[in-house]
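Allow me, if you will, to draw on your knowledge of protein folds for a short while. A protein sequence and the structure tokens that stand for its backbone fold form the material at issue. I would ask you to consider whether the tokens describe a fold that such a sequence might reasonably adopt. Thank you for your consideration; the sequence and its tokens are set out here:
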Amino acid sequence: MRYEILDEAYEELRSYAQRTRSGGVFNDVTVRVGETDIPCNKLVLACYSSYFEHQIYTDKDCTEIVLKGNLSADLVAHLIEYIYGHELILTKENVLDILECADFLQIE
């Protein structure tokens, strides 16, 4: 019973984070990959990514996190969607790229 309550609370929190992000509410940081801007919430990013957590703790007033290197904006966007509770579809063609990107962002 206890785990069911925790699962429900977890799902409610993720659902709320998705709704508020898509509605533009609580988006307090932009992740920039090349020319692509991805609006996000610092707390959600820091919760699921040690990389983002470090960036945010280093500069608590940051409003933009610029990702440098050879990262695909599409892959970063997919991983951020995954952080917010969307399904991440892995295929033979994309699994290594997604794992490499997830490793860079320190998403477990």
